[in-house]
């Protein structure tokens, strides 16, 4: 713990904050048709934060009286969150460009990204609470950004859930503070083992509740489908990808302060993981709206991610943390890729509207296949290596039954992902012709405006990333080789 | 050199897709690539025979991939894999010849098959469980698109989905087994050679049988054996002829190859304990496949079910190898199983291509709609008859060598099973003769279309496959020279 602070160590977060302020000011002072400059500011800030985060590495130091750690988890968040947010800006360019709230979108993305990174790095319950608010409040606005009835419903539902579970979480923090007399993780880890188990369980479960809300896990997942369906595609992509990164890393860090013998939090999380992957899958079976399908798919994906938290350990070079980071990075790429394909075909759509996509736009069809097969966990994509390491770490931790449930769920999930792939490769319907579906940018005949190009570029980038992460998995695993600090 | 062989087809496929070459060029590039892979695999075979003893891996390459979790890109060949590599090259080349007239998106078609070839070569060369799994799984993806994209019949997408769901389930069971091996090994590794040197689950109680069950389930679905075969007939019926040839000729061998490469040497103790299960499943597949094939009027479904029958023999031989008994006899059974893999690949690929000719001319596989084809199509009749006789295991063909060795080898360790399985030979003989009778003899059916004989292209695709079967049947030493030492080595590993 260091008392004197080094502002440079906090650079990735500061860049995002400054970027948000500059983007907000830019948006306020620049005329409507120049609003893209705010987007540009946001993109530069995200890229800058990414570079700063990459160069900072995982030094293992703690900042601000031990309330914020620059360790493997924070390092991972500093890389994955800005990269994912950049891709979200790219894939939402087609929808956001020219709208009245263009700069707001960029600012909200920046602030939510900042909150998410803080969530991952917090080693103090009070900072965790602040990060929770900072990561959540922009999302409520983002969910309702389009200002249509569906967006309003999704935003309201997210808001009500977020506030309720936030309060529950703060209650948990208060209880834990009461038990340990401190909110710092280092103190909690020392003082919680002697605490009364009932109170400890109440506090821990209440903190779980807030973090599970951010992750979109069962049983606090009800906001996810409505928010994703109601929100614009870009916002939906952000909601289902970025908050999870912070939530799961924060959860991983938080469970390490809990004493293993007093309460059986591992079993609780294992049951929640199994429920999350199973219920998410079952609900996804019947979905015909691709956005809703992806919403339920993310609920099931959280189940796989939670498996690693069940076997969390603080040891340096430990397999669980590395597996979690690899899975998060791979999942982010795959999920954003699928949303990018939706974004490239604006307008309401069902799975059957994707009929003939392979003929109209081979690039988009390729991204769709790579992304969806990646979500299944087919090699050589990143999620496959992620799943492999997650399964291996979970089994190694003694939770073989959870691995079996996850494998069965993976098979089940295959069905609904294939329901989307199959029409894309079917011949276009001869009765209605290819013109029936929404127009596809990227087809050779169409001259494209730059926002549409941006969407295609984002889609192709995410597709490539989803593959690449699988091939360079070892580099990603290396990020998790440092220990968790508090 | 081995990596060159594995990735050459995929590289050509990438060029075909990205460079947007003309369709005819793409098809010829596919054929030339096939011939190059044949040359490379034969060259490696010859070089291996001169430089390596049994149990040694030739052309091994190892590059760290994920050292953190004990997985590396590790490939190599031995007597178990060389025949299958050569078989892969030959069958893909034959399908390339057969597909030279493909009209529906030939460029993507060629690229897809080339990619499939890379996955097949990769599976047979893999010496790391994850590398094996990656190629194994990708072959499923490739075949899904072959069936869904180029298949025929109204149910093709359903068949493709069924195929994918079924075999993907199998591959995940396989992955669970692999993770089990990984977790049990110390230090944790996915390397097949290291795991074979120190079988991780020896004396482990309940974990060993469970891991073997997961691996065996995955491989049994892919093979397929009764009762996990139900994905096979629809997939075959709706796949294009070249796709069926590859599916039956190569992809099914990934399952049986997994038994000899992974299940037997890595879990020897469990294999010995549960060998009777594999013998039983093998015999059941032999009889069930033959009996159901007997009831088929659809020529392609008939061939599909004989595949279940032939795969049953392989499992019988491998199961017998785990039973107590004379080591030499068990080695003969394993040798027979390995020869059967090659033999079945050649013959079934030929049969499926011939079925494709039938569909091409008459628009149907229904045997009841044809008759007396020997008149208008003598070459078609001759090749089909030869292939049928080869498939039922007539002496002089590779199938005879294989089935004779399997039955002779398992007669000692598993006497009743071998006796019952021998019945299957009679059944297949009956069903093939009946099919030939219905197709080629008698009188033409009313409304039968004019039936053109085999073109030179079809002859060049199918003829060499049957010629190779005869070559193995007449000079078995050409194949046994590399297979027998590998089988002996495998028996030694299982006997530990």
TrEMBL record, chain A:
Taxonomic superkingdom? Bacteria
Assembly information from the UniProt record: NDH-1 is composed of 14 different subunits. Subunits NuoA, H, J, K, L, M, N constitute the membrane sector of the complex.
Q: What is the topology of this protein in the membrane according to its UniProt annotation? A: Multi-pass membrane protein
Which family does the record claim for this protein?
A: Belongs to the complex I subunit 2 family.
The UniProt keywords, alphabetically, are:
Cell membrane, Membrane, NAD, Quinone, Translocase, Transmembrane, Transmembrane helix, Transport
The answer to keyword Membrane applying to this record is yes
Q: Name one GO cellular component term.
A: endomembrane system
What is this protein's name?
A: NADH-quinone oxidoreductase subunit N
> What does the record give under GO molecular function?
NADH dehydrogenase (quinone) (non-electrogenic) activity; NADH dehydrogenase (ubiquinone) activity; quinone binding
Q: Which GO terms describe its biological process?
A: ATP synthesis coupled electron transport
| Reactions accelerated catalytically | a quinone + NADH + 5 H(+)(in) = a quinol + NAD(+) + 4 H(+)(out)
The UniProt function text for this chain reads: NDH-1 shuttles electrons from NADH, via FMN and iron-sulfur (Fe-S) centers, to quinones in the respiratory chain. The immediate electron acceptor for the enzyme in this species is believed to be a menaquinone. Couples the redox reaction to proton translocation (for every two electrons transferred, four hydrogen ions are translocated across the cytoplasmic membrane), and thus conserves the redox energy in a proton gradient.
- Main localization, broad class: membrane
Q: Does the keyword Translocase apply?
A: yes
| Membrane-crossing segments per the record | 14-30, 37-56, 68-91, 103-120, 126-146, 158-180, 200-224, 236-255, 267-286, 293-312, 324-344, 356-378, 398-418, 454-473
* InterPro entries recorded: NADH-Q_OxRdtase_suN/2 (IPR010096), ND/Mrp_TM (IPR001750)
Q: What class of enzyme is it?
A: translocase
> From which source organism is this entry?
Flexivirga oryzae
Q: What is its EC number?
A: 7.1.1.-
Which compartment or compartments is the protein found in? Cell membrane; Endomembrane system; Membrane
Boundaries of each NADH:quinone oxidoreductase/Mrp antiporter transmembrane domain copy?
122-411
TrEMBL record, chain B:
What name has this protein been given in UniProt?
NADH-quinone oxidoreductase subunit M
Q: Which family does it belong to?
A: Belongs to the complex I subunit 4 family.
Give the source's domain of life in one word.
Bacteria
Subcellular location per UniProt equals: Endomembrane system; Membrane
Q: Which UniProt keywords apply?
A: Membrane, Oxidoreductase, Transmembrane, Transmembrane helix
> Any one cellular component term from GO for this entry?
membrane
What GO biological process terms are annotated to this protein in UniProt?
ATP synthesis coupled electron transport; electron transport coupled proton transport
Which residues are listed as membrane-spanning?
28-49, 80-100, 120-147, 159-183, 203-221, 241-262, 274-295, 302-325, 337-359, 380-402, 414-436, 457-475
GO molecular function: any one? Answer: ubiquinone binding
Give the NADH:quinone oxidoreductase/Mrp antiporter transmembrane domain ranges.
126-427
Give the EC class as a word: oxidoreductase
For this protein, the record's Pfam families field holds:
Proton_antipo_M
Signal peptide residues on this chain, from the entry's feature table: none
Q: How does it sit in the membrane?
A: Multi-pass membrane protein
What EC numbers are recorded for this enzyme? 1.6.5.-
Q: Which InterPro entries match?
A: NADH_Q_OxRdtase_chainM/4, NADH_UbQ_OxRdtase, ND/Mrp_TM
Q: Which organism is it from?
A: Flexivirga aerilata
